[in-house]
Amino acid sequence: MDALIHIELYKLRTVRAPLLLLAVSQLVIIGGVSGLVISGNNLRDPKTISQALAHAGLVSLLTLVLGIMAVAGEYRNKTITDTYLSTPRRGRVVQAKLYASAIAGAAFGIVNAITALISAYLWWAAKGVPFDLSGTAVWHTIAGCFAWNIAFAVIGVGIGALVRNLTAAIAAALAWIALVEGIVGQLVGGLAKWLPFASGSALGDMTVAGSTVRPLPQVGAGLVLAGYAALFAVVAVSTTVRRDVS
Q1: Any residues with CB less than 8 A from the CB of 30 and at least 6 apart, and which?
Q2: pLDDT category, 194, cuts 50, 70, 90?
Q3: 20 by DSSP, 3-state: which?
Q4: 57 and which of 84, 114, 145, 171 could share a cystine (Cβ 3.0–4.6 Å)?
Q5: Residue 106: how many CB atoms within 10 A of its CB?
Q6: How far apart are CA 93 and CA 11, in angstroms?
């Protein structure tokens, strides 16, 4: 298993897509923190610091794409057959992809958190406001965003295994977040907070604009998102073992 994980990590290191996704993540974080400050929020409110740092979790949408590409990208590039021929058990390959994507998600989470901290610190300093990191809420936000990146990377692998067309898988995942969760929130408000993106938002202490639903507590949101990650991991392994490669 260790060898398979190293192979999957090597694949991630030797293609440009992960680096591009990481670069875009940093731009989104910087832009999000800048927009929050420019919009005139009270920088002396500790909640504003958490809102700024929560952008490190928001970009977990890109780790979701990374996880999808780990599986669906190989189908698109026609390399999946060679990958499965490298071991007699397909399930072990998918497990290796899950582990490798989780590790990549953790790396994204660390870099994203550092970028959010530096961006917020520079803006707070430019405005002449003390940047207080002594509050536990701030570090809860950082930890939640870190976990959010990992969970979405794992979920992405499950989506990529289930919907093997790369474009369709990414489109379906983003459509779910952008449309389906919003519609469910309007129709059945109490259910919305249990959905993946809403759970991630609660985990990362991100305030969803216009939402009237009280979010899950952070620990509860973490457990729910971990449940989704476990479910999609099972889906990734089971669907890959049972379906034809072609």
Answers
A1: 115, 119
A2: confident
A3: helix
A4: 145
A5: 16
A6: 13
Half-sphere exposure of 46 (CA within 13 A, CB side): 10
User: What one-character DSSP code corresponds to residue 214?
Assistant: P
User: Structure tokens of 227?
Assistant: 């449940």
pLDDT in tens, 50-93: 889 999 999 999 999 999 998 888 778 777 666 666 776 777 87
Task: Assign 190 to helix, strand or coil.
Answer: helix
Cβ pair 103, 194 in contact under 8 A: no
Residue 67 near residue 157 (C-beta atoms within 8 A): yes
Query: What six digits make up the tokens of 22?
Result: 């990481």
Asked whether residue 246 carries a pLDDT value surpassing 60, the answer given is: no
Token look-up 């990208």 returns 73
Residue corresponding to tokens 């979701």: 64
